[in-house]
């Protein structure tokens, strides 16, 4: 069962949002930082695997500079993190679309 969760790292003023697959691995990952809620990461496992299997290191580097690095974690114990909560699929999708729009914009 897919789940969507959020946690907060106060030291970095960073909200982390995860879409976890049936086994608890991060399938998509968003990081939003600061008072202005600036997206810094919006990475997808599906996209990373496609690049790994069908592109070169330069393409992977461009992806990571644009969308950040996907957290390669199993989300065990997320409930114990600061301000952790399960969120709806709709909330995650809204954040995902907004983060991708910002990070995908030409610099």
From TrEMBL:
It comes from the Bacteria. This is DUF2283 domain-containing protein. It comes from Streptomyces flavidovirens. The lineage of its organism: Bacteria, Bacillati, Actinomycetota, Actinomycetes, Kitasatosporales.
